[in-house]
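Quick illustration, no need to memorize.
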Amino acid sequence: MGGAPLSVQIRQADEVELWLMLGVLVLVAVIGFYLGFRRLWLARVIEDAPTARIRSAPQGYVELVGEAKAMAGEPIVAPLSKTSCCWYRYSIESKRGGEWRTVRKQTSDGLFLVADETGECVVDPDGAEVTPGTKRVWYGDGDEPITVVMPPRGAEGVQLGPVVMRSSGAMFTSTHRYTEELIVPGDPLYALGEFKTLDDIDHHQSRSEMTAAILREWKRERRRLMDRFDHNRDGVLDASEWEGARLLAAQEAARDHAEQLAHQHVHTLRRPQAKDRPFLLSTLPQFRLVRRYRWEAFGGFVLFLAAGGLLTWISTLRLW
């Protein structure tokens, strides 16, 4: 159809092209509509939630404002930059045919703390919608996270093991892109979720959950896990070796739990059971998070209106 006007091209398009075009526009409109209303809903939930102090917070759905702190015991280490942190999310992408495609990605689910002037609360980030303040993007030529180390500022082309790390200026010549988002100790933290203070009945369950979280974190560092517990070096953890890992994790969880009980009641924050209540963690202040959600809602509605307008226009050209 060459350089013919768009209206002429649409009139001359065959039915397969037409329905494909209409299907894409319907999908875009639905995504925009969903994004707009969900982001607007999240902004309103945040605005309506009163801020509680950890020591006096009511049981149930609450909003906490404090700072992130690491728990005692096995540290949480970001696999790419090897940074000790409270939470991480990373992705490794490979350039194929001029496009970046995800090779590997991972999100931390280890426990950490939120603290205010009245106390501390254990945060289980599993299932949370996290908005971190620290995001790093850099480039290189390898896809093995254990060899990927953040280069010092201005270290263009520094050799780090088998991987040559490059700054963002080398994005057009590198084969891999690394993205890492972090919550580090000391970061301000906004948290909205299900708050519960554990009583004596809950203590055993708390230790079990801590043990499970420690084991989850160890599994993510497979090489380290095998070095510690694969005693016969056959590359597989048999039942007895895994039981040893579980017992050690239980001992570590028991120490952490006892230390917490020695100083305070154990407060926890986690994903609410009710699906109509969001679980949010953010290093952005509350007002900035609300503003971001409102802008994203605006973008979603603009997308919906644009796709809907095009859909109506194309339908009018072909059907009337």
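The two ends are 22 Å apart (CA to CA).
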